[in-house]
Amino acid sequence: MKAYFLAATSLCLAGPALAQSGERGVPGPEERQVEESGADESRAQETGAAPTIVVIGEGLPDTPSVTAYASREISREQLVTAPSGRIEEALGAVAGFQQFRRSDSRSSNPSAQGVTLRALGGNATSRALVLLDGVPVADPFFGYIPFTALAPERLKSIRVTRGGGAGPFGAGALAGTIELESAGPEILPPLGASVAVNDRGGTEASALLAQELGAGFVTVGGRWDRGPGFFTTPEDQRVPASARAAYESWSLALRGVAPLSDTLELQAAGLVFDDQRTLRFEGADSSASGADASLRVVGRGPWALDALAYVHTRNFTNLVISSTRFTRVLDQRNTPTTGIGGKLELRPPVGGGNILRVGADYRRAEGELQEDAYSAFSGALTETRRAGGSTSDIGLFVENDWTSGPLVLTGGLRLDRTQIGDGFYIARNAARSLVTEELTPARSDWTLSWRAGATYELDEQLRLRAAAYRGLRLPTLNELLRPFVVFPVVTQANAALENERLVGFELGFDWSPVAGVELALTGFDNRVKDAIANVTLSPNLRQRQNLPSIDARGIEAGLRVESGGLRFDGTLAYTDAQVVGDGPTLALDGNRPSQTPRWAAAATLTYEPAADWLISTTLRHVGAQFESDVETDRLPPATTLGAYLQAPLAGGFALVLRGENLLDERIVTRNSGGDIDLGTPRTVWAGLRYGF
Q1: What is the pLDDT of residue 626?
Q2: Distant-in-sequence, close-in-space partners of 135: CB < 8 Å, separation ≥ 6
Q3: What is the 3-state secondary structure (H, E, C) of 495-543?
Q4: CA of 458: how far to CAs of 127, 274, 464, in Å?
Q5: Exposed (0-12), middle (13-18) or buried (19+): which is 647, by Cβ within 10 Å?
Q6: Which of 128, 230, 326, 602 is most enclosed, with most CB atoms within 10 A?
Q7: Which residues touch 495 (CB under 8 Å, ≥6 apart)?
Q8: Taking the CB of residue 513, how many other CB atoms lie within 10 A of it?
Q9: pLDDT tens for each residue of 556-590
Q10: DSSP for 417-470?
Q11: What is the helix (H) or strand (E) element at residue 416, kind and residue range?
């Protein structure tokens, strides 16, 4: 680890040797700031004064390729006005965004927080690449997203791009990319804080600090959430051991940006978090914790560069309680995991209407599961198990955008060498005698991915776009090594899993018929070959297996309307997803993948009646889903209504009222043979906010 930090520091210090002044790219706020800096330098040369250095705190500016793919922005306003105050609900503004289960991060197991797009699910692992300021945030062992550590008030915006990716870290962008961008002093207050309580005794508190330091800046953000929760078990199924979904989580984020020269800046970030939850029964406790750090050097010269190095240390624990005897049957007491990675991206000044990106990235994850099994009858230890291994990916990528008048053509290639390291699974009985020992030899593979797209602006109102792509996802250590139990159903791991590969295409348009109205429509056809799913072997036994494929075809629509103080933002997704089964999985042929709805919709109406006042209502709909791959145990559709009110008070304070699921819709999140879990019931929040 010490060597890694020395390498990361060397990478950052090497940046100035690669950077020069100036930038060729797509005009945007970043370039405007650099141009202003250059103008300041010219004036300084004339007057003899020192030039003004402007730091931005972001990555390199977007290239024209972003217009070729189906993407949607989530504004800061949408982030900080989500009725639940959770970032996963804010992401739900993009229809088709989906976690494995309908529960949010207060009432689900952390390992179920994988995210996907376009109904390409099948298990709880993330098929979408989630980046925070360019850094992958998924848990290195499980692939889930630590939502409790990602406070929406710390962010500037989020961009969701659907479809396979081939750029930096593109091997994780099987279903798309979700890019979170942190806010800086240009948005954050010097000091901000908020506190809120709900009608069940839950509390949340957050604080923000943003301060310019010389030519750079530093931001600090902390958040603490806790609550007794609600009964996820329906009233008619509760037993004396049933427990509320209690939770307590906290996170602390620190970020600093400083100039290294007039065109080069260093960005450093750190994050620590801890999350404790109880689900269904007394003693069924889980935890997720971590500490992340990253260094990034961004150069905005003719040879623009983006160099990044990061490290994640994470842990997970989980206690499984028998649903018949209500005693401990499994203690997943320790899952230490380390993830490291980095990238180097260069943009040579090739000219001729071209923007060329070349680079390499690397990711490695290693971890170990340590668990103890107990008898449900006697409570005695029956077996101790350990499982571990590693995965890694090194990728080379090149992408070029060519602009000629109203036409933009983009294309990229990515070559990945994926490796699954020596894995092991060892089980010993209570007397420490060996019961099972499985050793999995290391294996590796080479995969070529690509994407290509085109946009054509017929006029200022209408833009046509088309894209095709081939993507890749490496199985997680969780899928390869870790069995799990949602009692009484056992899901086995599978060390022989192959990489998932996606092939897809899409057609769409963006239309703005009049000022203040934006309509986007996309039709897509995606196929995931060797899709990893939890395949049913018997009523209480499943195993992760590669399916021949999952095919998903559908339509995505988005509408934004703004008139004065009134704003509407709506999205709709229809996806016809089917399993293609063959051989041992022939019985699944034509089935819809588990936990994938056909219909999803979201709409938010916002009104600002006066300065600093804001009222919004949010409607969300998720269609019917099946719990399992064999299309049993239906989860009925659910439609929820949320609301947000902000009213100014004296001294920079504001009153905030929030309402979740105001119609008290019955949201079924799990159905195992009629054994049901429920999502968040009607919840009302009241609080104060200062500075933001």
Answers
A1: 93
A2: 269, 292, 294, 296, 308, 310
A3: CCCCCEEEEEEEEEEEECCCCCEEEEEEEEEEEEEEEEEEEEEECCEEE
A4: 34, 51, 7
A5: middle
A6: 128
A7: 389, 423, 425, 438, 440, 480, 481
A8: 10
A9: 999 999 998 999 999 999 999 999 999 888 999 99
A10: EEEE--EEEEEEETT--EEEEEEE--EEEEEEEEEEEEEEESSSSEEEEEEEEE
A11: strand 407-420
What is the overall mean pLDDT for the chain? 90
CA dihedral 654, 657, 660, 665 (to 10 degrees): -160
Contact residues for 186 (Cβ-Cβ < 8 A; gap 6+): none
DSSP 8-state code for residue 174: S
Give the pLDDT confidence score for residue 29 in this predicted structure: 36
The secondary element (H helix, E strand) that includes residue 87 is helix 87-91
User: Which tokens belong to 551?
Assistant: 């095919």
> Helix, strand, or coil here: 43?
helix
The Cα–Cα gap between 186 and 172 comes to: 31
Buried b (16+ CB within 10 A) or exposed e, 397-423: bebbbbbeeeebbbbbbbbbebebbeb
pLDDT, tens only, 265-318: 999 999 999 999 999 999 999 999 999 999 999 999 999 999 999 999 999 999
Query: What pairs with residue 208 in β-bridges?
Result: 192, 221
Q: What is the pLDDT of residues 153-210, one digit of tens each?
A: 999 999 999 988 778 899 999 999 999 999 999 999 999 999 999 999 999 999 999 9
What mean pLDDT is predicted for residues 517-522? 97
Q: Would you state the structure tokens that stand for residue 486, as one six-digit string?
A: 């949602």
**More confident site: 14 or 341:** 341
* Domain residue limits, the chain: 2-690
* 220-246 tens-digit pLDDT: 999 999 999 999 999 999 999 999 999
pTM of the model: 0.91
CATH superfamily of 2-690: TonB-dependent receptor, beta-barrel domain (2.40.170.20)
Q: What percent of the chain has pLDDT over 90?
A: 82
Name the residue among 167, 179, 177 with its Cα closest to residue 411.
167
Q: What is the DSSP string of 118-143?
A: TT--SSSS--EEEEETTEE-S-TTT-
Q: Rounded CA gap, 659 and 682, in Å? A: 7
| Spatial separation of the C-alpha atoms in residues 125 and 100, rounded to whole Å | 8
Q: Dig out the tokens for 296 from the structure.
A: 């990034």
- Six-digit token pair at 308? 């990044």
Q: Is the distance from CB of 605 to CB of 629 less than 8 angstroms?
A: no
What is the signed CA dihedral for 668, 319, 271, 14, rounded to 10 degrees?
A: -110
Question: In this predicted model, what pLDDT tens digit does every residue of 620-675 receive, in sequence order?
Answer: 999 999 998 999 899 999 999 999 999 999 999 999 999 999 999 999 999 988 99
CA–CA separation, 526 and 529 (whole Å): 10
- Say which DSSP state 283 is in: T
DSSP state, residue 263: S
User: Which has the minimum average pLDDT: 16-25, 36-45, 140-149, 518-527?
Assistant: 16-25
Cα 393 from chain centre: 19
- The answer on pLDDT for 1 being more than 60 is no
d(C-alpha 271, C-alpha 249), whole Å? 14
Check: CB of residue 622 under 8 Å from CB of residue 634. no
What's the Cα-to-Cα distance from 688 to each of 203, 228, 274, 617, 647, rounded to whole Å? 12, 21, 25, 19, 10
Residue of 261, 363, 263 lying closest to 308 (CA atoms): 363
Residue in the block written with tokens 């990253």: 294
